[in-house]
Amino acid sequence: MKLHLFQKILSALLLIGMISMMTSCKDDDEPAPAPVNNDTATPCPGMETVTIEGQIYHTVQIGDQCWLRENLNVGKMLHTQDTLKNNDTIEKYCYNNNPANCEKYGGLYTWHEMMQYMGDTLNQGICPDGWHIPTDTDWSFLEGELDSLYAVSDTIWDTTGWRGYDAGAHMRHAGLEEWYDPNIGASNSVGFTALPAGIRYADDGTFDKIKGTCYFWSSTSSSASSAWYRLLSYTHKDVRRNPTETMNAFSVRCIKD
């Protein structure tokens, strides 16, 4: 009787082992996810790259607009406890006070620092000669150019909050290497290659939301202490437009004059 029971137990263990081996082999045979192609940009005619402070930036032509493909990273890094000041030096924050984050995601700038303390809407700011900080209208034009449902002329781009259908998905770096899962709909179809650089809050100087969001300044003020921005998120295909306090620190892109 004991021998018969032992044989049953042994047979069961062997069966479990075989099933485990078959499952393991099946997992090993499954193909790895296909690599995501983010090299989708069409460079601006006659200007594939621009060198700024020794760093090379790539250009991308989207409709009638020529943009820099990377977030701007110029100036001297200050610790988050310090205040960016109106002086002869361009100053920036790096997420978590880590210069490597500036190298990857670009600097985070307050609105006034970005504008170099000039209030004009169409302003070169910290962009190189021949380029300027995108206006609120520049951003709306880009959204309308990319969105699958709403044209450039649609009045939806004049509204606030999350607007449009999928312009944000076309702008974000595709895949999950840079953005949090699920990075909904991200295709980077035109090579704008937005990265989730996060934010530095004005009220307490803390950094937040890296890998999940990207905030872009416009040069257009909405009041004496606020300006319009755009927000891309890993959970949204559309783009958010709202005003916010100018002392928050966001990412900066440049657009050709």
Q: What does this protein structure show overall?
A:
The chain has 257 residues and is of the alpha+beta class. It has one domain (49-256). Helices cover 21% and strands 24% of the residues. It is built from five helices and 15 strands. The strands form six sheets. The protein has a four-stranded antiparallel β-sheet with strand order 8-13-12-11. A hairpin with a 5-residue loop joins β12 (226-233) and β13 (239-245). The N and C termini lie far apart (91 Å).
Strand order of the largest sheet: 8-13-12-11
Please tell me what the overall shape is: globular
Pick out the low-confidence regions. Answer: 1-6, 12-33
Number-wise, the strands total: 15
* Share of helical residues: 10-25%
* Succession of helices and strands: HEEEEEHEHEHEHEEEEEEE
**Mean pLDDT level:** 89
Q: How many helix segments?
A: 5
What structural category characterises the helix and strand content? Answer: alpha+beta
Oligomer: single chain
* Percent of residues in β-strands: 15-25%
The major sheet is characterized as: 4 strands, antiparallel
CA radius of gyration is 24 Å
Distance between the termini: 91 Å
Work out the count of structural domains: 1
